[in-house]
Each structure stands twice: as C-alpha cells, then as structure tokens.
Design goal:
Blueprint: E1 4-9, H1 11-28, E2 34-40, H2 44-52, E3 58-68, E4 74-82, E5 92-100, H3 104-114, E6 120-128, E7 142-146, E8 152-153, E9 169-174
Parallel strand pairs: 2-3, 2-5, 5-6, 6-7
Antiparallel strand pairs: 1-9, 3-4, 8-9
Helix pairs in contact: 1-2
Bound molecules: inosinic acid and magnesium ion.
Length: 178
C-alpha cells in the first residue's frame, strides 16, 4: 500500500513565500555577501530556491548534522556527519534549514559555528513547529511557515528518506508497506 499524503502547502504557496523571504533577506544583507550554509539533506531544496531569488552576492557551503534516525522521533543526539569546506571568519552566515522542531540540531550548530569567527549568524527555516520547541533559546530570523505538530514531507523533508523530491509540503496520513 502506498503512503497517503495530504497537501498542507502547495508548490505555489511555498514558492510565493520563498520569494517574499528572499526579498527580505536581500534587503537585510544589502551591501554584503551572504554565506549560506545549507543543512543537508533536508535544507537543499529550500537553499536552492532561496539562493536563486536573492539579489545580493551569495556563497554556499554545506553541512550535515544528524539528530534523527529513520523514524519520526528525535533521539536528542546531535553529531556532525559532514563539516563545512570553507572557513567562516568574518562572513555573514545564514544557516538554511528545512524545519525546526525541538531546536536541538540548530542550538548545537549555532554554538559550534559561533566559535569559528563569523561576522554574524542568522537562521532561516522553511518550516517551524513552535509547539515542539525544547531549546527555547534558538531564535529564528526568517521563517517561511509555522506549522502545527504534524510530521511533514516534501521540499527536502523525508519520511525514512522518501518524499524529499515532492514539490509541495504534505502530511503522511497512512503508512504503507514500502
Ligand atoms: P530538531 O533538532 O528536533 O529541531 O530537528 C530538526 C530536524 O529533524 C530537521 O532538520 C529534520 O531533518 C527533522 N524533522 C523534524 N520534523 C520533521 C518532519 O515533520 N518531517 C521530516 N523531518 C523532520
Ligand atoms: Mg530528516
């Protein structure tokens, strides 16, 4: 049986909102270069769509931090799976995430990256589940959508590594056999 996926945010809604956030980011970083850090794998679709819409100069780097297994429960354990290639010294860092849930991943990441001497660090997320926050000190500078406490897929977000390529945000309602 296939998983049943209910559309929560359409492709048009998501793209429209990303354009608005990109305009805001471009205004805020006027005269600067944004050093975007894409948090793999989930952040990759959002990073690309956001980067394409920015009018300020952009440099890109990638990092992979793991706090989840292949299930839908946070383990609370965070580790760096792939580190950045570039130094952060003096850079205007924008961390780009797919979703902030408990906030554990980001609170750890910000702490680690702050020690590398960036000019400043801001945080941009496609989705936020504020009800689920455990790390209350994580402040999000740019949020496309705040969503209820439901497990979502698409636009980079996976369920057991599937559905990242869906062009919309959906909720998995029924779990099938494969
Ligand atoms: P946090 O550390 O609890 O904030 O979790 C952040 C990470 O958990 C995200 O980068 C996602 O990879 C994953 N995650 C949290 N909620 C969802 C969801 O609803 N769908 C898919 N992945 C999720
Ligand atoms: Mg994930």
């Amino acid at each position: 049986m296939e998983d049943k996926i209910r559309v929560l945010l359409t492709e048009e809604e998501v793209n429209q909102k990303i354009s608005e956030v990109a305009a805001q980011v471009s205004r805020d970083y006027e005269g600067k270069t944004v050093h975007m850090i894409c948090v793999l794998k989930g952040g990759v679709f959002f990073t690309c769509e956001l980067a394409k819409r920015l009018s300020v100069p952009v440099t890109l780097d990638f990092m992979s931090v793991s706090s989840y297994g292949d299930d839908t429960k946070s383990s609370g354990v965070v580790r760096i799976v792939k580190d950045l290639d570039e130094s952060l010294t003096g850079k205007h860092v924008l961390i780009v995430e797919d979703i902030i849930d408990s906030g554990r991943t980001l609170s750890y990441l910000i702490e680690v990256l702050r020690q590398r001497g960036p000019a400043d660090i801001r945080l941009c997320t496609l989705l936020d589940k504020p009800e689920r926050r455990v790390k209350k000190q994580v402040t999000v500078d740019y949020t496309c959508f705040s969503i209820p406490d439901e497990f979502v897929v698409g636009y980079g977000l996976d369920y057991a590594q599937k559905y990242r390529n869906l062009p919309f945000i959906g909720v998995v309602e029924q779990q099938g056999g494969n």
